[in-house]
């Protein structure tokens, strides 16, 4: 239950949930790709990505000037999908 609480606390924002859902279907995406697909300003997006990386939810790699993010903790997808399937939401 502690891991579930950690996941919920770390992803408790609509932008963070959208990031997880986007990365669940991709191996990795650049910050600019995520920004474009989610229609979120890059500076705000970088704040969310950095926080999720520090908590171990995401990993990142640098290729030249671009930073690519990927899901590191795949269980996050399961928790979000479980909640999305709740009938009372």
Radius of gyration: 13 Å
Give the H and E element order.
HHEHHEEH
Mean pLDDT: 93
Give the DSSP E fraction (strand runs of 2 or more residues): 15-25%
Distance between the termini: 21 Å
Q: Which descriptor suits the 3D outline?
A: globular
Distinct helical segment count? 5
Low-confidence stretches: none
Q: How many strands appear in the DSSP assignment?
A: 3
InterPro entries: ArsR-like_HTH (IPR011991), HTH_ArsR_DNA-bd_dom (IPR001845), Metal_resp_trans_reg (IPR051011), WH-like_DNA-bd_sf (IPR036388), WH_DNA-bd_sf (IPR036390)
Keywords: DNA-binding, Transcription, Transcription regulation
Protein name: Winged helix-turn-helix transcriptional regulator
Organism: Hymenobacter duratus
Overview of the molecule:
- InterPro entries: ArsR-like_HTH, HTH_ArsR_DNA-bd_dom, Metal_resp_trans_reg, WH-like_DNA-bd_sf, WH_DNA-bd_sf.
- Keywords: DNA-binding, Transcription, Transcription regulation.
- This is Winged helix-turn-helix transcriptional regulator.
- The structure is a single chain.
- The protein has about 90 residues and is of the alpha+beta class.
- About 55% of the residues lie in helices and about 15% in strands.
- It has 5 helices and 3 strands; from the N terminus they run ααβααββα.
- The chain has a 3-stranded antiparallel beta sheet.
- Strand 2 (about 60-65) and strand 3 form a beta hairpin.
- Helix 3 crosses helix 4.
- The longest helix is centred in the middle third of the chain and has 13 residues, at about 40-55.
- The radius of gyration is 13 Å and the shape is globular.
- The model has no long low-confidence stretch (mean pLDDT about 95).
């Amino acid at each position: 239950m502690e891991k579930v609480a950690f996941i919920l606390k770390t992803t408790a924002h609509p932008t963070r949930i959208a990031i997880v859902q986007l990365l669940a279907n991709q191996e990795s995406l650049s910050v600019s790709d995520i920004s474009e697909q989610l229609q979120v300003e890059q500076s705000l997006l970088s704040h969310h990505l950095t926080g999720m990386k520090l908590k171990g939810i995401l990993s990142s790699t640098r290729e030249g000037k671009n930073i690519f993010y990927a899901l590191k903790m795949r269980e996050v997808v399961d928790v979000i999908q479980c909640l999305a399937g709740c009938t009372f939401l």
